[in-house]
Amino acid sequence: MKYKIFNYITVFFSVALVTTSCVENEDLEQLDPNNNAVDSFWKTDADAIQGVNAAYGSLLTDGTYMRSTPLLLDARADDARTNSPWGSMYNAGHFNSNVADAAIYGWAYETYYQGIYRANQVLEKVPDIAMADTALKNRILGQAYFLRGLYFFHAVNLFKSVPLPTELAVYYPQKTNEEGWAQVISDFKTAAELLPTSYAGVTGLDAGQKGRATKGAALGYLGKAYLFTKDFANAKTTFKQVIDLGVYSLVPNYRDNFTTANENNLESLFEVQFSRDAGGVDLGWGGAPASGWGKTSARAITYAPRAFGWTDVQPSWTLFNEFHDEKTKTGDLDPRLDATMFYNKPGTKLYGKDFATFYASSPADLNDIFCRKYQNSDGEFADEYDWRSGINERLLRYADILLMYAETLNETGDTPGAYTYIQMVRNRVGLPDLAVTKPGMTQAQMREQIGHERFLEFPLEGHRFDDIRRWGWLQDAAKLAWLKTRDAEFNSYTAGREYYPIPQLEMDNNPGTKQNDSY
User: Fold this and answer.
1) How far is 377 from 352, CA to CA, in rounded Å?
2) Is residue 93 within a helix (H) or strand (E), and if so which, with residue range?
3) Phi, psi of 316 (to 5 degrees)
4) pTM of structure
5) CB 421: neighbour CB atoms within 10 A?
6) Which of 68, 241, 266, 342 is the most exposed place for a label (fewest CB within 10 A)?
7) Which three-class secondary structure string do you get for 457-496?
8) Angle formed by the axes of helices 45-57 and 4-12, to 10°?
């Protein structure tokens, strides 16, 4: 197995009770706590571990990080473009999602609440399990709080005003966006108090397992929640706590953050664990888990270059051009350009093919640009058509912590201090000292610089549109006009469309739910 955590996830994801007619040993029984046999579950340490692993499992299906959530986060930003022939995907990138067609956004909404329900089961049932290892119990509860906070984070961030179930019940009324963020903050706070910095030094069933939520991950997301709600003082304090843990650093090779070569590295605070070697070979589209499901991602085929996958998402030309604005100290192009996208550069290869030769008969493709991040394109695979990428999705990197911390310094009056943390990210790719090239920036100038730095550090990682929205650019006429010059998809934007619609099924099943503006 790629990671020990999969040993538990794979076993747990059986649909029903696994027994044989000739074996009566109850120790062989594996129960799904979501089925009718729940009364005989939630008895042991192993049950608790399997329960929390089910909550992790909701990160692996189509509604979340197998495919839909990256699409929802990337499609609308000026670092990406989509001309997908699938209307639902095209509309997601053009601010035109249809209330009558909940494909993609509705799947995400459903899966977030599946994950929340599973986390709530853990939080309700595990405290009553008699566990000799109280530290293990606390870690399991901390992971459940973290995962519930993460699913709430996405639901509140993408859908604005949503239900906030914190217990197992039947009816959950819609809450305000402010109440949503307060719950996110509460969950991440609690998680940070319960979680370890690492699983390397713990004892118990989770000892040494990579991929589980840690204190650093909880603090990182807590800081993001403060930042997104403009509580810059608390965000600054929280990001500094992450830095002061002393366990994270930037990996020397930027591209190691997007391949299987160096997963769960020192830069990663939290990533979704995918593997071609775990589970079966079927795709996890959603709903009740099946025993044949694999633990693979469909991001690669969805974003893949022409003829190697579906090419539903491509980098924007604005992104390509902005990478040329500043050379490295040695006069070279920013190396993040080649790590982010394929283009007709001499010597460029994709899936073992020479770019110029492969696209020679198609001038449109020869002169186009394609995604390289999260592609299995280094020659090991011929294409992505098996839909089975094993590349982990990095949800939170230390580079993000550094740049967000710089932002909070700037917003709390320490603009000079922001230079240090920005430069740490720039140094990795050999860019000049910003304090020399742009000394003495004002707070407003630094805001613009941070926008530029984040644009080039995190393209196609689901951050850019969140930044655009939280910075208020869509409500700023000059900024919105600027965005339209960078990405024609913003011509379709109307006020309120920064959020996706509440799925119609939720409207029908949850009386009193109000639809988001403009839908």
Assistant:
1) 7
2) helix 87-93
3) -85, 155
4) 0.93
5) 22
6) 266
7) HCCCCCCHHHHHHHCCHHHCHHHHHHHHHHCHHHHHCCCC
8) 90
